[in-house]
C-alpha cells in the first residue's frame, strides 16, 4: 500500500535556527501518529508546514502523490490537510453549526464530508451544535475545533496538543473520539501531546523529535523502551 | 436645536461611511488605510469628469463609485498585499499611496477646485422648522442604503461570514479553507465602493480638490478608534456620535473648533473605555 502522506526531508529555518531539521515520515489512511518531544523541539513548526501555514525552507510534503507544501493554508485545506491549534481558536459569538457551515462552503467537496450531526456524534458534541462556541466548556471547545477541521473534509488531521487542560475523563473521551475519526472516516491523524497516558494508548506509531530532528520512531511499546528517548524526554516527566 | 441635530446627523453619516471602509480594511488586514482619502478624491473627479462629458448624473455617480472600488482593489493588489508579513511598514506604505493618488489627481485635473452639480442641488426639504438641502438628504439616504447593504452582506452571505471570520482570527479562518487574498480584495473592494459613495455624496456640499478628503479622513480615523478598531457597528455609532458632537460644538461654541470637539470626545471615550465603544476581539467586523 502506498502512503497517503509523505513528508520528505522537511527543513524550516528561522535565521540561524533550524526549528525543523530534516524530518521524514509516511502515514497511511486511518493511521494515528503520535508526535512527541520536549518544548521547542519543532513539533508545532512541523505541523505548520504540513498545514501550509509555513513554507518549508526545503523538503516536500506530498498528499496522495501531489506536492502540497508551501502553497498557503487554504490550499492545504482544500487538498485535504486540516489542523487544530495549540490554543483554542474558535469564532467568538458564532454557534458551532454556523462555523461548520462556513468550513463546508469553503471546501466544495462532494457528499463524502460527514454531516454536522455525524461530526457532532463522533466527537460527543451532540446537542451543542446550536450553542455559541463561547458557552461551551473548555474541553468541548477543544473538540469543537476538531469538528471545524473535520467539516473541511480532510484526509489528514493535525492536532496540536488537543488534550491540553483536560482532566483524565475528558482526555480519555478525546482519545476515543480521535480513534473513531481515524477508523470511521479513514482520516490519517497526527497528534502532538505531552500527556503520555493520553497519547500512548491512542497512537499506532510514535515519532520523537529533539531539536528539530527525528530522535526515534516506532510503536508506543518500542518508544517506551527506547533509552535515548527516556534520557531526552520521557525521563523528565 | 433640531436643525443642529439634523446637520450633525448629516456629518455623522459621512463619517460613518468613510469610517466603515477604514475599519473593514483594518479588521481583515490591520492596515491603517490613509490612501482611502485618495480613493475618495479620484472617485469624485471621475464623477465630475463623466458628468462634464454630458452623461446623466446617475451614470456619472456610478462611474465614480466603480472607480473607487477599482482603485482601492489596485492599492491592495499592487501594494498592501506585499507587506502583509511586515505590518510595521503599513503606515508608511499607506501614506505613500495617499501621496501617489493625490498627485495623480493633481496631474489629471489640476489644483483648482471643481464643483459637482447634481439634479437635487436646488431641492430644499422642509419639515417643521428644519430645512435640509437635497445634497445633504441624498447623502443620508445613500449612507443608510449602503451601510444596510453591507450589513446584509456581512450577515447573510458566505463571503461576508468569511470576512467576519478573517477579521476575528486570520489563521483560524485560513484553517477553514478561506483564501485570505480573496477576502483582502473583497474588503478593499467594499471599502473603495463606500469611498465612492462618500465622494459622490459629499463632493456636492464641498468642492472637489486633491485634498478634499484629508479632514474627513482624520475625523473618520477618530471614529474608527472611537468605535473600536475593526468594528463595523462601532464605526457607525461612533460616526453618528462624532458628527452630532461636532455639529453641536460648531453651533453653540465655535465652528473654528469643530474638529477639536471630536478629539475631545475621543480622549474622553478612551479614558472611560480604553478599547473603544464596541471593541472586543470577538466582535470585529460584526
Ligand atoms: N516564527 C518563529 N520565528 C523564530 N523562531 C521560531 C518561530 N517559531 C518557532 N520558532 C522556534 O523554533 C523552535 C521550535 O518551536 P516549536 O515548533 O513551537 O516547538 P514545539 O511545538 O515542539 O514546542 C523553538 O526554538 C522556537 O523558538
Ligand atoms: Mg508546540
If you had to describe this structure to a student in words, what would you say it looks like?
- The complex is a heterodimer of chains A (237) and B (286).
- In chain A, 35% of the residues lie in helices and 25% in strands.
- Chain A has a six-stranded mixed sheet with strand order 6-7-8-3-9-10, sandwiched between helices.
- Chain A has nine helices and ten strands.
- The relative contact order of chain A is 0.18.
- Chain A has one domain: 3-Layer(aba) Sandwich (Rossmann fold).
- With 237 residues, chain A is an alpha/beta fold.
- The termini of chain A are far apart.
- With 286 residues, chain B is mostly helical.
- A two-stranded antiparallel ribbon of chain B has the order 1-2.
- In chain B, strand 1 and strand 2 form a beta hairpin.
- In chain B, helix 2 packs parallel to helix 4 and helix 10 packs across helix 11.
- The longest helix of chain B is centred in the N-terminal third of the chain and has 28 residues.
- Chain B is globular.
- The C terminus of chain B is likely disordered.
- Classes of the chains: A alpha/beta (237), B mainly alpha (286).
- Chains A and B meet through helix 2, helix 3 and helix 5 of A and helix 6 and helix 7 of B.
A few lines on this structure:
Chain A is α/β, with parallel strands linked by helices and 237 residues long.
Write out key terms for the chains shown.
heterodimer; A: 237 residues; alpha/beta; Rossmann fold; four-stranded antiparallel beta sheet; 9 helices; B: 286 residues; mainly alpha; two-stranded antiparallel ribbon; 11 helices; 2 strands; 70% helix; disordered C terminus; binds adenosine-5'-diphosphate
Topology:
The complex is a heterodimer of chains A (237) and B (286).
Chain A lengths: L4 E10 L2 E11 L4 E5 L6 H8 L7 E6 L2 E2 L5 H7 L1 E3 L12 H10 L10 H7 L15 H14 L4 E5 L7 H18 L2 E5 L3 H7 L2 E6 L2 E6 L1 H6 L1 H6 L5
Parallel strand pairs in A: 3-8, 3-9, 6-7, 7-8
Antiparallel strand pairs in A: 1-2, 1-4, 4-5, 9-10
Helix pairs in contact in A: 3-5, 6-7
Chain B lengths: L1 H28 L6 H17 L4 H22 L11 H20 L14 E4 L2 E4 H23 L1 H11 L1 H6 L4 H23 L11 H14 L4 H21 L5 H15 L14
Antiparallel strand pairs in B: 1-2
Helix pairs in contact in B: 1-5, 1-6, 1-8, 1-9, 1-10, 2-3, 2-4, 2-8, 3-8, 5-6, 5-8, 6-8, 9-10, 9-11, 10-11
The complex binds adenosine-5'-diphosphate and magnesium ion.
The site of magnesium ion has 3 residues of chain A, from helix 1.
